[in-house]
Structures are given as C-alpha cells and as structure tokens.
C-alpha cells in the first residue's frame, strides 16, 4: 500500500495509523536514494512525501526560503536561480531527488568546502512523528537557533526517526563570475603539493576536487586532475586563473563548459552505478594528510573533496568494496559503503565502525520509534 499525503495532517495520520497497528513503513520522497545507505526493507506500507511540494515562504531580500519536503530539488534550485540565489549542496541524483530526500540523506557535493553541508544551510524544519505530532524546530531567521538541534537530528537520519515535512534554508547570492581551472599532473605527489600550496594561499575557492587517472574526470586531459571552482568578482577570478596556471598544466573552462563540468562531477556516482549495476561506492572520511597516503595506490576511480578530506572510491563489484572497507577499518579509517546493489546490502558490513556516539543514536531511535516500524535498517543496516 502506497500513501502520498498532500497535507501535513494527512502525513501525520498515515504514520500514526501504521504505528498504532504495528505496520512497518518505508518512508521516502521519490526513491532516488534507494541504492544509498542500508537496504530498503520489505514494509507493510510505503509513505511518500512527494505530494508535499509547495513553496511556503520566499522573500529573496531576506535570503531565506521555506519549502515542503517533496519539492523536486531541480525545481527548488531553478526557483532560486531566477533570483540569482542558491543553496549550494550539489547533491548526486539531483534530477530525481526531493528536498526532503537530500536533507534526510545529508547529501552534499564539491562546494561543501566553502559553504558547508546541510547542517550549515538549514535554519529550521517541521517534521512529523509516529505519535502524530508535527514538530517545528528553528525558524525563518538566519540567527535563530531555538530548537535547531532537533532539526539536526533529522539531517542524515534516512527517515529512521520521523518524516521531514518542511525545510527552511538560508540562501546564498550567486557569485558575479565563476570559472573552472583544471590543473593536470603526471604524478600524485605533484598534485598534492599543488593542493597544499593552494590551501596555504589567500585564495578561497568554492571547490577543490582531486581526481585520480581512472576517474577520467580531466575534461579530456590525462593524469591526476586538480579541479578548482573559482568564484567572485571579475578581478578575483582573474587572479585565481593567473595563480593556478603557475601550479601546473592548466585548462580553463568558462560559461556553459564550466557548468557542464561540475554537473558531471555531481552526477559521477549516478552515472557509475547506471553503468555498473553490481558496483559499490565507499566513502572515506580522512584528514588532508591521510588523503595523500591512501588515495595514490588506488587502481579504481576515486573522487576526493580535496579541501575537506572526503573521498569516494568506486568498485565494479560490491565484494571488492567490502574487502577494501574491511582493510580500511582495520587501519582505523572512518569509512562506509555508501552505495551498493540492493540485493547485496543484507550480506555486507556497510558501516563497520559507527563510533562512540552510536549508543546515543540507538536511544534516539527508541524514543522516536519504540516499535521499530520506520525505515528499518536504512541507516547503514545499523538502525
């Protein structure tokens, strides 16, 4: 049975009815993240927030916007773009994703280096619990922090606690000028040295991504690629270009090629999984120094947020990803299998080292969902 409520009251009733009768629930938006995190367990009912798609409040001069969770992400960003504004999360699967799905999965992309993640952009939220309560957290004022921690619980929870109904964002003005500089290197050491020089400089790019040769994200250029997204006024972007050209063999993208390049970066994971249906993606969170150690030996595609230490490693087969993850965990690295074939998830250890705060997460799950009916196992098979 599939429910697609169009009001918050209907959403609350659908969840509460299922909870009262101990019927398990699969909670989702458009289902674009089904390959992400834990398995989508067989459930008695499916509740989709895709029917909640209104823009509730938007005044561009206030730099805030409030939208319902089912609003398609592309419609959301297109609306902001008409006013030269943005919420620069750059999530994968953006063509199919909803606002609620992006926030519930804590998805982000290349520009997290400058702008942060969802926790930095969400200023308020309404969510619906199994007890039929509509909880409001935060507000529509950028500096309003009242109750904000409750909203943060929902970010990255994969719908295991409650259903996100409304999300309030602070928005950013789009930069006057943007340009991409791709600097290529024959060896990883030179690429990391260039990254270090860039991070130590006064320049603050919107994105600093590093791609190994198998990723083939060099825009037709071989080797290791340091991709820098420069943004600001004309004089600042021109300076970026001059200084980046001094780091190595550089290629500059402007206008449509610039936009298309970052679209390819954002959608690298969806394209990989479409071509490799048995493939899997491991996300490794490391220090900037450790990135220099574990990334060069990789013989499979790897895409790194080189200014933050997050690296995505791509395997044609889920078993190979599991072996790599076990080895990484054995070395004390923080890693998860972020994407894997649905049929394989139940047999894989997706999150080998959840950390010291996992017991707190278990208690929160018991508080919000004592009968464990909501999105069972979706948080990397742990909750």
What does this structure look like?
The protein starts with a strand and ends in a 15-residue tail after the last helix. The strands form four sheets. It has an eight-stranded antiparallel β-sheet, with helices on both faces. The protein is 31% helix and 25% strand. A hairpin with a 4-residue loop joins strand 16 (302-305) and strand 17. It is globular, with a radius of gyration of 21 Å. The protein has three domains: 2-173, Uridine Diphospho-n-acetylenolpyruvylglucosamine Reductase, domain 3, CATH 3.30.465; 177-266, 2-Layer Sandwich (Alpha-Beta Plaits), CATH 3.30.70; 268-347, Alpha-Beta Plaits, CATH 3.30.70. It has 13 helices and 18 strands.
Task: Provide a concise account of the structure shown.
By secondary structure, this protein is α+β, with helices and mostly antiparallel strands. Helices cover 31% and strands 25% of the residues.
Give the SSE map.
Elements: E1 2-3, H1 8-20, E2 25-28, E3 45-48, E4 55-59, E5 64-68, H2 73-81, E6 85-86, H3 99-104, H4 112-115, H5 118-121, E7 122-128, E8 134-138, H6 148-154, E9 163-170, E10 172-173, E11 177-185, H7 188-200, E12 207-211, E13 224-232, H8 234-245, E14 249-253, H9 255-266, H10 268-275, E15 280-285, H11 288-294, E16 302-305, E17 310-315, H12 318-330, E18 334-339, H13 358-368
Parallel strand pairs: 1-3, 2-3
Antiparallel strand pairs: 4-5, 5-9, 6-10, 7-8, 7-9, 11-13, 11-14, 12-13, 12-16, 15-17, 15-18, 16-17
């Amino acid at each position: 049975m599939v429910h697609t409520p169009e009001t918050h009251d209907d959403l609350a009733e659908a969840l509460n009815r299922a909870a009262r009768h101990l019927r398990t629930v699969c909670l989702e938006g458009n289902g674009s993240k089904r390959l992400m995190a834990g398995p989508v367990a067989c459930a008695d009912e499916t509740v989709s927030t895709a029917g909640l798609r209104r823009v509730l409040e938007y005044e561009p001069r206030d730099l805030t916007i409030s939208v319902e969770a089912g609003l398609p992400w592309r419609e959301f960003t297109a609306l902001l773009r008409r006013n030269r504004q943005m919420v620069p999360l750059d999530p994968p699967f953006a063509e199919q994703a909803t606002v609620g799905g992006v926030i519930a999965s804590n998805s982000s992309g290349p520009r997290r280096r400058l702008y942060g993640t969802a926790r930095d952009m969400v200023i308020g939220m309404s969510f619906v619990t199994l007890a039929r309560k509509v909880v409001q957290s935060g507000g529509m004022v950028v500096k309003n922090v009242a109750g904000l921690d409750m909203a943060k619980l929902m970010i990255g929870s994969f719908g295991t606690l409650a259903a996100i109904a409304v999300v309030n964002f602070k928005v950013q003005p789009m930069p006057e000028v943007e340009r991409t500089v791709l600097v290529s290197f024959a060896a990883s050491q030179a690429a990391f040295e260039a990254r270090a020089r860039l991070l130590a400089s006064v320049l603050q790019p919107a994105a600093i991504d590093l791609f190994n040769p198998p990723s083939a994200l060099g825009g037709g250029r071989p080797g290791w690629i340091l991709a820098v997204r420069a943004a600001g006024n004309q004089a600042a972007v021109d300076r970026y270009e001059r200084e980046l050209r001094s780091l190595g063999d550089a290629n500059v993208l402007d206008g449509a090629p610039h936009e298309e390049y970052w679209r390819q970066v954002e959608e690298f994971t969806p394209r990989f999984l479409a071509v490799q249906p048995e493939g899997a993606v491991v996300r490794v969170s490391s220090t900037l120094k450790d990135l220099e150690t574990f990334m060069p030996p990789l013989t499979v595609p790897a895409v790194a947020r080189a200014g933050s230490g997050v690296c995505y490693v791509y395997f044609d087969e889920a078993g190979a990803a599991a072996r790599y993850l076990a080895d990484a965990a054995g070395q004390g690295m923080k890693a998860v299998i972020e994407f894997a074939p649905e049929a394989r998830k139940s047999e894989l250890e997706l999150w080998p080292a959840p950390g010291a705060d996992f017991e707190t997460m278990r208690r929160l799950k018991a508080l919000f969902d004592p009968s464990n009916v909501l999105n069972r196992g979706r948080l990397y098979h742990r909750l």
